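Listing S7. Sequence submitted for prediction.
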Amino acid sequence: MRNSALAAMLAVATLGALAAPALAQRDPAYAAARSAGKIGEQPDGYLGIVGASDKAMQDLVNDINIKRRAIYAEKAKENNATQEAYALTSGCQAIARTTPGEKYRAPDGTWQTRTSAPPIRDPRCP
């Protein structure tokens, strides 16, 4: 992928990635689970469950991930990119936007708690 195409995809991914969390944050259950460290951002652009889960938590994460997948598919098509590449770029941005205390999945698969230091991101992140 050329640098200009990657830059354009990143710009659009940032807008798309901002929309998904903004919509999800209107849900008090999402906000509570995120602040409690029960869910976190993953490099693949989707939310993950940290530790044990129940049906309500799984349903919440599934709902948000289905909405993200739809956005990624639409935006990837508009930008002549693969859905996976678009989701990765969105995941990079979502992890970068985490705040201290929030959970995210590091490239090695471990869940990390964000500190004041930059998060550990996938080496493919722009």
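Caption to Listing S7: primary sequence and predicted structure tokens for the chain studied. Confidence is low (pLDDT under 50) at residues 1-19. The beta strands are 39-41, 47-49, 103-105, 111-113.
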